[in-house]
Amino acid sequence: MRIVFMGTPEFAVPSLRMLLEKGYNVAAVVTQPDRPKGRKRELTPPPVKAFALEHGLPVLQPEKMRAAEAVAAMAEYAPDLIVTAAYGQILPRGVLDLPRLGCVNVHGSLLPRYRGGAPIQRSVIDGEPSTGVTLMYMAEGLDTGDMIARVEVPITDEDTSGTMFEKLSVAGAKLLEEWLPRLEAGTAPRVKQDDALATYAPNLTRDDERLHWEHTSRQVFNRVRGLNPMAGAFTHLNGEVFKVWGCKAPAASDAELPTEWLASQPGTVLDSGPFGIRVRTGDGSIVLTEVQPAGKKMLSAAEYARGARLAPGTVLG
Question: Against a cut of 0.90, is the pTM above it?
Fold first, then answer.
């Protein structure tokens, strides 16, 4: 069975590694083009490309998978099966029709919920108690193909999008390994999705990264950890971007504010000290633990408050 693997970020690497470790014939790897990264904007290969080159695999990096020349380049590898994991582009009919065994995708949610490009981040932001991985056949729509199998993974208060990416990437590789023999034999099941239950997880925008202090403490907490370690949540301090990378999980007592704090508007700094920076929210308060002022590195909120002498009554927003 000749397999063409398509993936881009670190999430996809465990699935590709599993294919090689289990002796499958990976004929080629398709990934996104190198992109500028960091302050110096240096061209950087995607993690899947770096891994593929380390193992001597041919790599294709079409800018647009829909281009005729991209489809023709893939066809030269005559795949029996195409496996994708967070590739980043919707596959055209010309690619979907190439392999005799079909195209399967390792998707980071429990479909039909969270179809789209940011299912893991939005699951955390939405405060879901769990998410998972769905192994599915690919179709021309956005994550609409028939399902093969799913596995559920809990989301705890200690999790961020970063930890969930790691957990789900491992779970996805195991799920793919479990079902590959039946995919090769052509006996894997096809379970249609219930479109009435579908929800969507579009790629995050700048507005998604903004903290709204009038939200509940739990909503603020979920947004902060859902954006860590990717873009980071942000607010403004003295007109400049002020990123928040970590905060404590809100407790029931966080809503029981002293009388002098009750009149404060959401976003007001109530107190700061070795514990962090306490900020008013829509239903109480939350303690920030890791922050990053404009033009500076990330540091503990306690360290920042000590150095900046962040006064109670300062308003973030």
Answer: yes
